UniProtKB/TrEMBL annotation:
Alphabetical UniProt keywords: DNA-binding, Transcription, Transcription regulation
Species for this entry: Pseudomonas fungipugnans
PANTHER family: TRANSCRIPTIONAL REGULATOR, GNTR FAMILY, TRANSCRIPTIONAL REGULATORY PROTEIN
Annotated HTH gntR-type domain residues: 20-87
Superkingdom classification of source: Bacteria
Record-linked CDD domains: WHTH_GntR
Protein name: GntR family transcriptional regulator
Length: 231
């Protein structure tokens, strides 16, 4: 009988973790493993197993799992505990459409208040996105690019909702890049968007952003209609 592999065996822990860093190290390590697919959907993450793996108590593990649940990477299921969430949950197309509304409003409010430092940071994100192939880093840079353009919106609650949506997208971003070949296309979109934003052309910027995000809606729709989605 073939022994079932343990997804946690792919995680390497280098030495003892300082107590004050334990929660953040565990969160980021698990987050990267989920985003890259090394810990697949449906995997149960048991607190004691993780505590043993990282050489810590269960408290920072519990805190890290709560953070990952807040980012929609985990679901808490009765009698099973924390389980890696499906790639696409609920009505994903409607969720993406809501993101378009929220991000369009954030961009519209932010553009008049952006400065040269914001433009330079956004441009650096694009340059780095063209040279990296690590999905966790791609996800981080993509989120940073978008939040840099939105960050001057005065409505902080709106920005928190936008940031949550960008976190939720990160796993699907990997799927987009792998199966749809959207890497270069995304950077072309980003450069055109940044150019419009630097020109303070609010309406063109919002139109370009909506076109960019609608590619995600199309990708999700095709995914859900395919046999591979399991729906």
């Amino acid at each position: 009988m073939t022994q079932k592999s343990n997804p946690l065996s792919s995680i390497k822990v280098n030495g003892p973790i300082p107590a004050h860093l334990a929660r953040s190290v565990i969160e980021e390590t698990l987050r990267t493993a989920i985003l890259t697919g090394r810990i697949p959907c449906g995997t149960a993450l048991r607190q004691q197993d993780l505590a043993d793996l990282f050489g810590v108590s269960r408290m920072p593990v519990r805190e890290a799992l709560r953070q990952l649940e807040a980012q929609s990477l985990l679901n808490v299921i009765a009698h099973k505990g924390a389980v890696v969430a499906p790639l696409v949950q609920g009505d994903a197309a409607e969720t993406y459409e809501l993101r378009i509304l929220l991000e369009s409003e954030a961009l519209r409010c932010s553009i008049p208040l952006l400065d040269n430092e914001d433009f330079e940071l956004a441009a650096c994100c694009i340059d780095e996105l063209e040279s990296v192939d690590d999905y966790a880093e791609i996800s981080r840079l993509n989120r940073l690019f978008h939040m840099t353009l939105y960050n001057k919106a005065p409505n902080r609650r709106l920005l928190r909702l936008v940031d949550a949506g960008l976190h939720e997208e990160e796993r699907f971003l990997r799927f987009n890049l792998e199966t749809m070949g959207l890497g270069k296309l995304s950077q072309d979109d980003h450069r055109a968007l940044l150019q419009a934003v630097e020109s303070r052309d609010v309406e063109r910027s919002v139109t370009l952003l909506q076109q960019h995000l609608n590619r995600g809606v199309d990708a999700i729709t095709r995914y859900l209609a395919s046999p591979a989605s399991g729906t």
